[in-house]
Write a structure and sequence with these properties.
With 715 residues, the chain is an alpha+beta fold. Helix content is 23%, strand content 25%. It binds beta-D-galactopyranose.
């Protein structure tokens, strides 16, 4: 009897399990609706109201997107699968054999993501590309010409071609390990699977002519890129923590005496009367009259940027006012404001306006918004708005960007600053990511990945072990979205390493000369979503047409190992025409992979190669720069500060190679948002048969340039 009962229980359990399995494997093919040409949206089950894009609160750039070319849906919809179960959403996208995947945020070691597993989690970067990052952006772009955004403010697990399903249509070959005949621990997988800890999700799929076009559409969908104020593109010096007004003046004098560019001085924690958490009040001993101090700096062509972390010191009016809107947990004894609530946002905005912006502060460096588990609010924390701790963590940086952006917009003044946490949706916020990790090579890989993920990144300079390292780092920061020395801890100056001072000075002035090119490059980011700094994968035809030492790159032979071996993560594009190939400490030269087409040396105009790997010897002096055939680089005299970028600035337009070329040169007032209402000027610089011409495209009264001198660099 007992046995019969036991068997019955087993049969019943098996039956109910089967029932459950049946339910759990029930998949749907998400339904996609086209919102703009080449942009489709889908809702799986019931997406949460709060997501990455609602936190960012920026509208897509509809007009530009509507002018984009029509696209076919890039994948067979039958092959995209989704289902929700036990409060989680499961997603599956197909991968083809030679398909490569880029993106998934600010990674520091890898550019190609196929074959990797990550939990996209806002965090300090801990030395591994495991998804913990200052920008864990759930967006990827495929070499097949499409991209996907998983719009959820959640810790998202991604298996990028790692899991092999039992029902796969492309099963990997079975190998016997005993026979030692090709067995591998990670056999071929034909899918990209994603797990979202939420009962539904919004997906956005982008298709384009090229991978770059896909990223552009993604950027435009998130609001379009950033156009920094002109001063933001000058040189930045961040000063030691406890500097006072006298020290800062001495620092600024040093830049004059040593003739080194300087547009922005960054004040670190000591400007607050107390820090970690912050009072947001000026320290009266170090800064007795901040308004006067800011005015003095402004007269010397120097803007002020203020460091902060968002946690509020547990005394004072700001604390009392914000306390009702703070989360359940503290960080370093400071409260954590819930800025999704309009009241708390307003209190902080009014405070910043009165005590900082109206005194002439140009922007902020918003630190510690990425968190680190041991000191940040834990995931069990609660917030008065009902947004949970995980959602807060994934978006706190975005919220801070939006809070400050709003007040600068109200003043019609552009800001440009630093942030340590960004996510999908923060594309159009004028903030550049930085961190403490300080690995030069990995900083360049991060710069490449920033372009795949809609964020900006600076490879900032701090202390160095040698003059060479110092010089190389100075070179790369000058070829990035923000040229900055961060001396908060070590008090270094650009002239600290005297034997390489001349080289550092040269590269900083070269950046200043290139500002017409760089500013137009950022305008292209704003108008068209083109990432100003980007990896070679976004250069059309780069991978498929590439001849390497091992022959043509053929991804079909091996799905990812082949391509991974040749992952290009130490050279990048700045704007349309310039390839930057940094040298690192102790290099005796380096290899540079040139995409198809003729390429020329920036400095000499000489031909260097076409679709091949070249070796550049280390001349110790300059950062290797190469220009595409027909490339046009508009340059101006080597000014020290952008305040000298004035009416009638003469232009030297350099032209490289033999092909005809075009470049859209952009200008506006450099500081307000009037350009968004059409107050800007664009002109087409054209080089044809060794002759240059200038045509008007969009006219307004903001045009700073005078005489145009054409310089054909290639004989
Ligand atoms: C760090 C930050 C540094 C510097 C420092 C000041 O968190 O990454 O750049 O600002 O704080 O205490």
């Amino acid at each position: 009897m007992k046995q019969i009962l036991f068997s019955l229980i087993i049969i019943f359990t098996l039956f109910s399990c089967q029932q459950k399995t049946k339910v759990s494997s029930e998949q749907i093919n998400p339904i996609w609706s086209e919102t703009f040409p080449g942009v489709w949206k889908s809702e799986v089950n019931k997406p949460e109201d709060f997501n990455l894009l609602t936190a960012a609160n920026k509208a897509p750039r509809a007009e530009t997107l509507n002018n984009k070319s029509a696209q076919e849906f890039p994948i067979s919809t039958d092959e995209i699968k989704a289902f929700t179960k036990n409060g989680k959403t499961y997603l599956r996208f197909p991968l083809e054999k030679e398909e490569q995947i880029y993106g998934f945020g600010l990674n520091f070691k890898t550019v190609q993501q196929r074959g990797r597993i990550m939990r996209l989690h806002m965090d300090h970067y801990g030395g591994k590309d495991d998804g913990k990052s200052h920008a864990p952006v759930p967006f990827y772009v495929s070499s097949k010409g499409y991209g996907v955004l998983i719009n959820a403010a959640r810790y998202i697990d991604v298996y990028v071609g790692t899991g092999v399903r039992a029902d796969t249509k492309n099963p990997p070959t079975v190998y016997d390990r005993n026979a030692r005949d090709g067995w591998t621990a990670q056999p071929y997988s034909d899918n990209l699977e994603i797990l979202i800890p939420a009962d539904g999700v919004e997906l956005v799929l982008f298709s384009g002519e090229t991978m770059l076009d896909v990223v552009q559409r993604f950027n435009l969908y998130c609001g379009g890129g950033v156009l920094p104020p002109k001063w933001g593109l000058g040189f930045w010096q961040r000063t030691p923590t406890l500097y006072d007004t006298g020290d800062i003046q001495t620092e600024v004098n040093g830049f004059v005496e040593n003739n080194f560019p300087l547009d922005v001085v960054g004040l670190e924690p000591g400007w607050h009367s107390k820090s970690y958490p912050c009072t947001f009040e000026w320290d009266k001993t170090r800064y007795p009259n901040p308004a006067q101090f800011a005015k003095n700096m402004d007269k010397q062509g120097v803007k002020l940027n203020l460091w902060m972390n968002p946690y509020i010191w547990p005394e004072g009016k700001l604390y009392d006012d914000i306390k009702p809107y703070a989360g359940s947990h503290t960080v370093w004894n400071g409260i954590v404001p819930d800025y999704t609530i309009p009241e708390s946002r307003k209190i902080m905005q009014e405070h910043m306006l009165k005590h900082q912006l109206d005194m002439g502060v140009s922007g902020y460096k918003m630190d510690e918004v990425d968190g680190f588990d041991r000191w940040l609010w834990p995931d069990v924390a609660t917030f008065p708005s009902g947004i949970d701790a995980e959602q807060m963590r994934q978006t706190y940086g975005t919220q801070m960007m939006s809070l400050t952006d709003e007040i600068y917009r109200e003043k019609n003044e552009r800001t440009y600053g630093l942030i340590r946490a960004a996510n999908a949706g923060s594309v159009s916020y004028p903030y550049v990511i930085y961190n403490d990790y300080y690995n030069h090579r990995d900083f360049i890989t991060a710069l490449i990945n920033s372009g795949n993920s809609g964020v900006l990144w600076t490879p900032e300079v701090r202390a160095s072990r040698s003059s060479e390292e110092w010089m190389r780092r100075m070179q790369t920061t000058c070829f990035s979205p923000m040229a900055m020395l961060n001396a908060w801890a070590d008090g270094t100056k650009p002239w600290t390493f005297k034997d390489v001072y001349k080289q550092c000075q040269d590269v900083a002035f070269l950046r200043m000369q290139m500002l017409p090119y760089l500013y137009s490059t950022f305008a292209d980011y704003y108008f068209n979503g083109t990432p100003p700094f980007r990896g070679m994968n976004l250069e059309a035809g780069f991978e498929t047409s590439l001849k390497t030492e091992q022959g043509e790159l053929d991804g079909t032979k091996n799905p990812y190992a082949e391509a991974l071996k040749r992952e290009v993560k130490d050279q990048y594009m700045m704007g349309e025409f310039m390839l930057v190939a940094p040298l690192f400490n102790m290099d005796a030269g380096r290899k540079v992979i040139l995409p198809k087409g003729n390429w020329y040396d920036f400095y000499t105009g000489k031909y260097v190669g076409n679709g091949e790997i070249i070796q550049v010897e280390d001349g110790f002096e300059q950062i290797p720069l190469f220009i595409k055939d027909g490339g046009i680089i508009p340059m101006m005299p080597a000014i020290r500060q952008t305040s000298e970028w004035k009416e009638n600035t003469p232009l030297e337009v350099r032209v490289y190679g033999k092909a005809n070329g075009k470049f859209v040169l952009y200008d506006d007032d450099g500081k307000t948002f009037d350009f968004e209402k059409g107050k800007y000027t664009t002109k087409l610089l054209k080089a044809e048969n060794n002759k240059g011409s200038v045509e008007d495209i969009h006219q307004s009264d903001s045009w700073i340039y005078g005489e145009v001198n054409w310089k054909f660099m290639t004989e």
